[in-house]
Specification:
There is one protein chain. The protein is α+β, with helices and mostly antiparallel strands. It has 4 domains: 42-246, Cytochrome Bc1 Complex, Chain A, domain 1 (2-Layer Sandwich), CATH 3.30.830; 270-399 and 418-485, Metalloenzyme, LuxS/M16 peptidase-like (Cytochrome Bc1 Complex, Chain A, domain 1, 2-Layer Sandwich), CATH 3.30.830; 510-727, Metalloenzyme, LuxS/M16 peptidase-like (Cytochrome Bc1 Complex, Chain A, domain 1); 748-931, Cytochrome Bc1 Complex, Chain A, domain 1. It has 29 helices and 23 strands. The protein has a 7-stranded mixed sheet with strand order 12-13-14-18-15-17-16, with helices on both faces. Strands 1-2-6-3-5-4 form a 6-stranded mixed sheet, sandwiched between helices. It is globular and about 80 Å long.
């Protein structure tokens, strides 16, 4: 089943489908468009033709094997084994898998990856070109080797120990440490309580290779494996290849029984407080575990129950949102929902993030809302909105079924194999949902609360900072008991069915039309000077996008109003619009798939919007209201502000925020306009200032350019644009942004900053900044340089040295306010290895300057860029971005002469020359965060 979480549907007029009678007791069939079978050795396969993206395919190896299958001396080796699958197989020694695929533009990390969980390990090769002779066969051979032919050489095992140790270090944050304190209580008496996937560093560093090989032999076997191949392929041909390649793999003799893992039931309520020095929020959760039927065949009754669960969750979410919009919110965030938790178990989760030292108030409030639902259930009006909103989403999904990606299908088949999650295909699910949803009643959904919210198998979990005031077990249980016996009023559902705009709009005529042949688009200038650029694009069948901008942005605001300007976008969106607060507006938009939000950057202001073709008019109505009738709701402002103040109150303890804030100040040379969010920043955010800034920036529509791209008729766009955008006020104001002089420090900046890390690590940041002409040649050269650096650092710092889990490289060129380029390089590592590893960062750069990149690295990078470019052409967003860039920057990036031809003509000598011109003479900021002594 496609998991359209938290959305449900209502029967309305739909495209005509052949009507089927669904019996709830019948088993849900597998999508008939997927070819499936089981080989004699027990391996399962799923093969499907799909063309999103065209000329590409994805290959998945699904292992029903995870961390729960480890012995104590193997703690962490399921994950270790996942790494080893990329470090030598029978047919691809060493880094042969990566090198082979990267030569065809298939990138490690993004297209070549894997994950390990408690119960499964899944490998993927994604977006592999199918037009290259033999590449499909190569990928099948890789899956074949992953099944049974890993080399697991001692040399490669030893080389990978450092990488995984550094992954452990990188992932060891407050959230991870807190979870390791409360999981043993929640899962008491089960194997879930003693495994965390990443494992024990002692085992990682010192296990005997034979121990890893034993785990591999015991569990990587054909009866616990499935492969999924989805893409632009001939299914019959690929199925025959699968039989030929995979059938000879021998089944393991005397195979161990694959255990399932149970969590002991308990009548008493468990309780745990988990604290950490770096934790920034206090959270109270109540988990009620319930065994489910994962791994068993599913009937349509199960599918119906999943819909009921989704309906339930969407309605509870709406109630919590409404609670947080008014007065003084009792908590920062909260939820009361039912969902899947771990394999074999669902959990009813009641969670609230508390205001500082106010856990009692948060717990009582979220338990009160939960008890209100349990006692009184939901109103029919709530249910009808939830159904209608689901229909809108599902109908859009159905119309765009040709845009369901290869990877989405492959992941769906993985879930089907591992847990038997229904996967009937969008056609069957669409038809079934339309038949069953009208039969679901509010009483039926409400009854679920009484089934799910109970006392047994319940655990209270409190997490937060070490020095905060936390509830005791007695206090928490007392609050729950109090709520269960207190008087609670039923929820009253307010209607929201008024029209967005009641007045008649005069609009404006089109005074000039210009064809944009290079984009197959048209530009209209309206009588109020609004510019509208439209391109019909039907790559996404049920989508229309809108982007608008005007020069100015927050650069027009003086320094003392920067905090208000910085928060304007977030707060104005929370106020609602016109006469409607945010909750009323959300109810009014029931059944419409439409979003509009104002945007503010340092140099521009504008709007982002999206809708279906049928909701396009509503999108323009919202734009009109945001211009002409913006809403400024002080109660909503104060409610949101109190949540922000509570949220950041303990952020000063978060090493990640400390580092990010420090870098922000250092890279701006401590410019007075540059500030980071802290209590003083929020103190300077003023409601009246936000109103003033917004009204100053979002006015004079004649200074705005609107881009509309999507699957909608041009005449419809013309009519509605002239009516709504043509009715916007033109103040005949000409303005531009202001260069406020925010620049990086000149020369070389070296800083070593001590940080209190709970888990010792160093964080290295190297940033180069230099003036460079903004043109398409330099934009592409920078992309190629970044790709080459990614490859070099993966090989030298990660693989050869085992020094880090990964080096992240970021790059970009800016045109305004000055033409300038930047390259950022960052990684975590063992503090004792900082200088050695950092020297490799500079060595690789110097090597490119002195010798140029290698042919291999250059060709891999260019191939990847060309592959991604080809895929992007088949999406509406490509044309939206191209049009915007053309107007804003003056470059037609859609023209092959400005991309494909430039890349194909580029040489590694060009990159060597570009690297020299950029790095030599660049400002350098070298910042290392190290643990305090």
């Amino acid at each position: 089943m496609r998991r359209l979480k938290s959305i449900l549907l209502l029967f309305i007029t739909l495209p005509v489908l052949a009507q089927s009678e669904f019996k709830l007791t019948d088993q849900v069939p597998l999508d008939p468009n997927v070819k499936t079978g089981v080989l004699e050795n027990g391996m399962t396969y799923y093969i499907r033709h799909n063309e999103e993206p065209k000329d590409r395919a994805s290959f998945y190896m699904i292992q029903n094997v995870g961390a729960l299958l480890e012995n104590d001396d193997q703690n962490g080796l399921a994950h270790f084994l996942e790494h080893m699958a990329f470090n030598g197989t029978e047919n691809f020694e060493g880094k042969g898998i990566l090198n082979t695929l990267q030569n065809h533009g298939v990138a490690f990390g993004r297209n070549i990856n894997a994950y390990t969980a408690f119960n499964q390990t899944v490998y993927n090769l994604s977006e592999v070109p199918t037009t290259h002779d033999g590449l499909v066969d190569t990928c099948l051979l890789i899956l074949h080797d992953w099944s049974n032919y890993l080399l697991l050489t001692e040399e490669e095992i030893d080389a990978e120990r450092g990488v995984i140790t550094e992954e452990w270090r990188t992932r060891r944050n407050a959230s991870f440490r807190l979870r390791n304190q409360w999981f043993p209580v929640l899962f008491k008496g089960s194997k879930w309580a003693v495994r965390d996937i990443i494992g024990d560093t002692t085992v990682i560093r010192y296990h005997e290779p034979s121990t890893l090989r034993d785990f591999y032999h015991d569990w990587y076997r054909t009866d616990l494996q499935a492969i999924a191949i989805v893409g632009d392929i001939d299914v019959e041909v690929v199925e025959q290849k699968v039989k030929e390649i995979f059938s000879p793999i021998p089944a393991v003799k005397d195979a161990k029984e694959r255990p399932t893992f149970k969590i002991p039931s308990h009548d008493e309520t468990y309780f745990v407080v988990a604290t950490d020095e770096e934790a920034t929020q206090s959270s109270i959760s109540v988990f009620i575990l319930e065994e489910n039927n994962d791994g068993k065949p599913k009937a349509y009754e199960d599918l119906k129950n999943h819909y009921i669960q989704s309906l339930y969750n969407s309605m509870t979410d709406m109630r919590i949102q409404e609670l947080l919009q008014k007065g003084e919110p009792p908590f920062i965030m909260g939820s009361t929902t039912m969902s899947g938790f771990v394999r074999g178990y669902d959990a009813y989760s009641i969670t609230a993030t508390a205001n500082p030292n106010n856990e009692a108030k948060a717990l009582e409030a979220i338990m009160t809302e939960t008890e209100r639902i349990k006692r009184y259930g939901f109103a029919e009006s709530e249910l009808e909105r939830a159904k209608t909103n689901f229909l809108t989403e599902l109908e859009s999904h159905y119309k765009q079924k040709d845009k369901i990606s290869n990877d989405s299908y492959a992941r769906e088949y993985a879930e089907y194999y591992l847990t038997m999650t229904p996967a009937p295909g969008i056609d069957v699910e669409y038809e079934f949902a339309n038949q069953i949803l009208p039969t679901i009643t509010a009483e039926e959904v409400s009854q679920k609360a009484k089934e799910w919210i109970k006392d047994d198998n319940r655990t209270i979990v409190i997490t937060g900072p070490t020095d905060a005031e936390h509830l005791t077990e007695a206090e928490a249980k007392s609050i729950i008991t109090k709520v269960e016996s207190m008087e609670i009023e039923p929820y009253v559902d307010a209607a929201g069915d008024a029209s967005l705009i009641d007045e008649d709009l005069t609009g404006s005529a089109i005074v000039n039309t210009r064809k944009l042949d290079a984009f197959d688009a048209v530009e209209w200038t309206l009588a109020n000077n609004v510019k509208v650029i439209f391109r019909h694009a039907d790559y996404e069948k049920d989508a229309v996008s809108l982007v608008a901008y005007s020069d100015g942005g927050t650069s027009k605001v003086e320094n003392d109003m920067v905090p208000s300007a910085g928060m304007a976008q977030t707060f104005v969106s929370a106020y609602g619009v016109g006469d409607f607060d945010a909750i009323t507006l959300q109810k009014m938009l029931t059944g419409k798939k439409v979003e509009v939000s104002p945007t503010f950057s340092s140099l521009t202001e504008g709007f982002n919007g999206s809708s279906t073709p049928k909701d396009f008019e509503t999108m323009l109505q919202l734009v009109y209201l945001y211009f002409e009738k913006p809403r400024f709701d002080e109660e909503a402002h104060n409610a949101l502000m109190s949540r922000y103040v509570a949220y950041i109150s303990n952020m000063a303890k978060n090493p990640q925020k400390i580092m990010q804030d420090s870098l922000t100040y250092i890279l701006s040379d401590y410019h007075p306009r540059v500030r980071t969010m802290d209590p003083d920043y929020l103190t300077d955010v003023d409601f009246k200032e936000i109103e003033s800034i917004y009204k100053d920036r979002i006015q004079d529509a004649g200074d705005f350019t609107f881009f509309i791209v999507g699957n909608i008729d041009q005449e419809v766009v013309k009519e509605l644009a002239t009516k709504y955008l043509g009715s916007l006020t033109d103040n005949d104001r000409e303005e531009n942004w202001v260069d406020r002089g925010v620049r990086a420090p000149e020369g070389k900046t070296d800083k070593v900053i001590p940080i209190a890390f709970e888990t010792p690590k160093a964080n290295v940041n190297v940033t180069y900044v230099n003036d460079i002409e903004y043109n398409q040649e330099n934009i592409l050269a920078m992309k190629v340089l970044k790709g080459i650096l990614d490859l070099r650092y993966t090989e030298s710092v990660r693989e050869d040295e085992g020094g880090t889990y990964g080096v992240r490289v970021g790059s970009g060129l800016s045109q305004y306010p000055v033409e300038r380029a930047q390259v950022k390089i960052m990684f975590d590592c063992d503090p004792s290895r900082t200088e050695k590893l950092k020297s490799l960062i500079y060595q690789e750069i110097n090597k490119i300057i002195e010798e140029g990149p290698t042919d291999v690295d250059f060709n891999k990078t260019v191939s990847n860029l060309l592959k991604d470019r080809q895929q992007s052409l088949e999406h509406n967003s490509f044309w939206m971005n191209s049009l915007y860039n053309y107007y804003y920057s003056g470059i037609n990036s859609a023209d092959p002469a400005n991309y494909e031809e430039l890349l194909n003509e580029m040489t590694k000598q060009d990159i060597q020359k570009f690297a020299a011109s950029f790095f030599e003479g660049a400002d350098l900021i070298d910042v290392v965060f190290k643990p305090k002594e």
